[in-house]
Amino acid sequence: MKNPLHFPPPHLLTRAALLQPLCITLLSSMATATALPTRAQDVLEQPITLVAQDETVHSVLNKIESQTNVRFQYSRQLIGAGRRVSITAAGQPLGQVLHTLFTPLNIAYEPFASGIILRPAALADVTITGRVVDEKGAGLPGVNVVVKGSATGTQTDLEGRYTLVAPDNGTLVFSFIGYTSQEVAIGGRTTVDVNLAPDSQALSEVVVVGYGTQRKQDVTGAVARIEGEEIVNQPVQTPTQALQGKTAGVQITTDGTPNAQPVVRIRGTGTLLAGANPLYVVDGVQTTDIRNLSNSDIETIDVLKDASAAAIYGVRGANGVIIVTTKKGKQGKPVLSYNTTIGFKQAAHLVKMADAGQYIEYLRSTSPNVTIPTTTADTDWYDQLLRRAMYQNHNLAVSGANESVRYYFSGNILQDDGLAINNKFSRLTVRSNTDFTISPKFSINSQASFSRANTRDVNFGTAFQNSYRAAPIITAKEGGRYGNTSAFGNVGNPLLDIEKNNNRSYENRLQGNVGLNFLPIEGLTLRSAINVDLSFNNRRVYNYQYLNDEQTFLAAGGNQRNPQSSLDVTQINSSRYLWENTATYQRVFAEKHNLTVLAGTVMEEGNTNSLSGSRRNVPEDPNQWYLGTGDPNTSVNGSPVLGKDRRLSFLGRINYAFADKYLLTTNVRYDGTSKFNSSQRWGLFPSLGLGWVLTEEGFLKDQNVLNFLKLRASYGQLGNDQIDANAYITTADVNIPYVFNNAPVLGAVISQIKDRDVRWEVTTEYDAAVEFATLNNHLTGELTYYRKTTTDALIPVNIPALFGDPNNQYITNAADISNRGVEAALTWRNNVGDDFSYNFGVNATFNKNRIEALNGGQALFGGANNVTRSGNGVAAGSFYVLKAVGVFQNQAEIDAYPKYTFLTPQPGDLKYADTNGDGVIDPNDRVYAGSYQPPMYFGINGGLNYKGLDFSFVFSGNVNNDVYNYKRQASNAVTDNIESDFANNRWTPTNPSQTDPFAIRSNTPNSTYFIESGSYIRLNNLVLGYTIPADLTKRAHISSLRVFATGQNLFTITNYSGFTPELPGGPLDAGIEATTYPTSRTLALGLNVNF
């Protein structure tokens, strides 16, 4: 066995490091002294007497020469023509006199046989510290700081701070893409702070890339940035909603439910059964949900779209990464700011249903045996359930900074009453961001936010579906009693569904981190940070007691009743802790070699526990809504659910740029997770990115057409472990009775077979792009091609029945899924004079999603009534239905047609194609008929500023995708209402339609008849603002005051007949309108004021 290496103790290394330069200096001095001839040394020992008062150096040297045989050799520039000195000597050695004379002048002397040579003294090195800020006082990370004329240099850290050893009379050069370079003389100082001014002729963007920042010019991956000021005035609940249409490659869908989490897809869907949502990182805290954030607190949002950019996050980055940086204080006096938006919202679009007259006519022709009441109403059920709702958002913040402390504190109150009655959402958020600079080498930063969200809701899915189906001839409510729709043979009264149910949810959430930064040597930053995300949820569901009698209804009967009140309580608590330790080394060599090296470890633990219970006959008084107040004989206690997962990761990154034109970025992450069996827990995820800035080449230096041109290409791999923590452990049900030896005994039976070797899905991505700026940087753009392939995607695989699984299958890694596409973005910005500026941008994404192979796995059905099927060669979540090819006009046509297995057709029924030609219409004739995933989606943005007036707009849309209008198909009772258009266009003997049937029958199958175009273009947001002139506001001690009007979801152009073509969902069920909460249109007024 080899002897282990032994290192000396750290304190001995420190002493050696301090003694080394001293020893070198002494040895050098001894060597120099030894080398001098004896006669030259004797020159300095000559005694001299000298008196000089305010004389030139030249005059003093002449007096010395007149007393000795010494002759001085020097340049006029060295001694300075006008430099004057005073000195007195009485018999001192010449060497002592020269030392007294030349030391203050920074002049060295060297004797030789015939005289003394004068030369500049060696410059003293000093440690320079400082901070580089932008025009707003915010620190600039990644600024190059170089000693002019040398290879010595460094870069600023995340706070804009730097430390550098340089000659005390040297000059520092500060350069940063997008800002004008500055040269600053050190002049003997030890602190040099710099304000860099924006360069309007440069590409001025810095992006966050995970555990650091990079100049946009140096980035080799696909990273997009959205500034906080672009979203702060939008009247939305979550920052994610405000990103819609802002950047290529990012598709966002949401409905109108208050506090709903938008569905985000970055470059398509790459999974079927695992999680498909991106990772969010808020000031270093990794999370899956940012609904607790206030838009006013956000400084920037950076989206890491490709595997090269996101590889640093390993198994959590397969679906992309969204990095949110919140605001921090800026240098200068404290700033108090208040932002508010107050307005109202209403349904953006509602389906027009048949009125009482159309409905009665429809009933008489389709269901002549139904008895129509003699007294009828004309009820608009949507009008009964929906309302004009209030929206308000208030944010108060104070911020500031000095050399030692930077701070930002804020409080936010948001209230959204919701479109539906008895629906309300409110949220309180407080935030604290502080940075402390203890010394040039030590700093501490912390971010913390607490939010409390309260929600009141009901089962709106059932209520909205019943509103679509409820008979308009039944009164909604009168004299405190409800119209009895179910007694008419129809669905339950949707108004009663809402008013006899009371759901309350409370969520308290705490997020934050504390980080320590240490700069032991120049260019090296060591950081250790603890990140915490805690969530405490409590949900209480109360159902009132009511009977189907005349006390509740205007007429007794029907089946809508709840004979016992009930209370269900669920409590879910979760915690996630993450400890990061990183070392970052930044250095600039020879003014051309820019190197940044990152290495680190990440340890993570997540815990979830939930507990539920219910009781009957709980009093109606809300103050008594506790499980202990109900009937103990009806108590049901849910089993506690506990979950834990852990991860351990090692990460590294190298960024290198040569002469700002040849770029290289490589990432590697080695991840281990407890979610898999010990043999499958570890995985290596690398990436490589290359870039070439052509405009830094000599052959493009002197042209005026292209201001910036870069080619980049990247490759990377990522993992996806968003599955259940025990996905590899087979489960069994216990205490199952069975007979053994003619006696009953209790045993266990397998409930679900699991694949013990299941592992993460792996996404491999190739990316190539060109970025450019032209016409004096007025026009900028980017064109990107990407190919993203997921292998080992989770999919069910059939297994023999003898294994004991009830479904004869288990989930394993088998499928391959691809997304290929092109992203394009163009932006034009220009200033006209000093008072007018404008911008216009457009982005488009072309994406093709395809399941390349199931590799023995089973196709997956999903969505309402299993309307989608994800199989070989089609997009995930594709509609799989019968093909409607017309309407039967008569019985003869029916008799001559292939037979139906699911109903007996009548004239006016839909006609379906016999696609397999077997003479029978059955489920085997289903075909793939499009999907919700759009082959193209886009965004259009623009704005202008004229003096104090500002205007901006955002459009977004989809092209050539499909949606399934399931709510029309679900209207299957003979007394269900119909849409007004259908009432006018449906088949009748006198209106032989070839497209719309006579009626939607109860067993109508899934078919292309219910598939419609999902293409649309929507005006997402419009803002018109005015900033009051400063000479008016300063009288009230107001720094700035801006008023604005804004609108969200103002109009949509689409051919879709439903509520909205924007229908969020998972990989298997997106694009299906069944019980959708209507989207809202918001109009609001706002105020931004700074003191």
From TrEMBL:
Coiled coil ranges: none
Membrane association type: Multi-pass membrane protein
Keyword Hydrolase: no
Alphabetic keyword roster: Cell outer membrane, Membrane, Receptor, Signal, Transmembrane, Transmembrane beta strand, Transport
CC terms in the record's Gene Ontology section: cell outer membrane
Signal peptide: 1-33
Start and end residues of each TonB-dependent receptor plug domain: 216-321
Locations listed in the record: Cell outer membrane
SUPFAM superfamilies from the UniProt entry: Carboxypeptidase regulatory domain-like, Porins
Highest rank taxon of the organism: Bacteria
Sequence similarity: Belongs to the TonB-dependent receptor family.
Record's protein name: TonB-dependent receptor
